[in-house]
Specification:
Length: 330
């Protein structure tokens, strides 16, 4: 009997069969995603694309629509360009929490109020306002979740934080990030949005589920049934989010294979590979940025980017406008 089977067997008298199946799928999916991250030959590129997918999903949970290409066009090509988004999750995204147990109110407060590095030319966002009484009440309830398996406890953490609403805006998305980072043992895998990636793809009505105000004709309206539905949706979100990471790994490996093929016919001194890897690790690439990073003239860089586009390694996202920007073609 493997470890997962043993854990599920011990849980079988406490949780429904549906919860157990979702729990097992989430554990298996996350294990595969963590393995892919370890084995990927260019981990910075895979992490960059995981983060972009998480950002898109977290924006969706905030009720906003923002896709990675729009980020690149509207906010620039800096690796920290996403910090210019006016969303609540931006202030805590990619900030690694220092907890592995159920977080206390002080731990959450420290996480949310830590100073982020300022962006040149952009005003610093105002600090998140926190209702201390609500946060303390949530933390007292959350402390009781320590006896639950981590993945199931994370579902309850996310839902209960949203219900407590210690923030004037963004409590559902910050609660989901907090729970996601608690659930996933590998910090590089999650910036706080793996579960939300799955919720987004599943079109799960997370905000309605946490309050119990769904439009479905439900037979059971008790708090216990509400919590069951939240746990199932969250666990399924973790599983689908993990599958998304695996699919990103597969697509990026195909792109790396195209890059290897394109470089095989060029001189060893060719700058094609470093150009492509530079584009893969950031939200977008411009001629000026590439020229500076590679130590080339703008004319040479323009020709190199044209070669990369012809080889289907890069694609332009600005439709020929001035200050053209490019991303990798995956």
């Amino acid at each position: 009997m493997n470890i997962q089977s043993a854990v599920i067997l011990r849980m079988s008298g406490v949780f429904s069969e549906t919860i157990l199946e979702a729990f097992g799928a989430a554990r298996e999916g996350l294990a595969r995603a963590e393995e892919r991250l370890v084995l990927f030959p260019e981990p910075e590129i895979l992490i960059a694309h995981i983060r972009a997918a998480e950002q898109e999903a977290l924006a969706w949970l905030e009720g906003e629509s923002f896709i990675p290409d729009q980020l690149a066009m509207n906010y620039g090509y800096s690796p920290r360009a996403w910090r210019r988004w006016p969303f609540a999750f931006v202030q805590a995204f990619e900030r690694v929490p220092r907890w592995r147990a159920i977080p206390t109110a002080d731990a959450v407060r420290t996480w949310l109020k830590a100073d982020a590095a300022p962006l040149a030319g952009w005003p610093s966002p105002p600090p998140l306002e926190i209702a201390d009484t609500r946060l303390e009440g949530w933390a007292r309830q959350a402390a009781r979740l320590s006896a639950l398996p981590r993945l199931i406890a994370s579902a309850d953490l996310a839902a209960s934080f949203a219900r407590a609403a210690p923030l004037p805006r963004g409590s559902p998305v910050i609660g989901a990030m907090l729970a996601d980072r608690f659930a996933i043992a590998t910090p590089k895998l999650s910036g706080g949005g793996i579960a939300v990636m799955g919720l987004h793809q599943n079109r799960s009505p997370w905000r309605a589920l946490i309050t119990g105000a769904t439009d479905d004709d439900l037979d059971e309206l008790s708090e216990r049934a509400r919590d069951e539905r939240c746990r199932i949706a969250w666990l399924e979100g973790l599983a689908v989010g993990a599958v998304t990471v695996v699919r990103l790994d597969q697509r990026l490996r195909q792109w790396l294979a195209r890059l290897d093929t394109a470089c095989a016919s060029r001189r060893k001194s060719s700058h094609l590979r470093p150009l492509a890897l530079l584009a893969g690790a950031g939200p977008s690439l411009t001629v000026a940025r590439a020229a500076k990073a590679l130590g080339l003239s703008r004319q040479a860089t323009t020709r190199l980017i044209a070669e990369a586009c012809k080889a289907h390694l890069l694609r332009e996202i600005t439709q020929g406008n001035a200050f053209r920007r490019y991303v990798i073609a995956v």
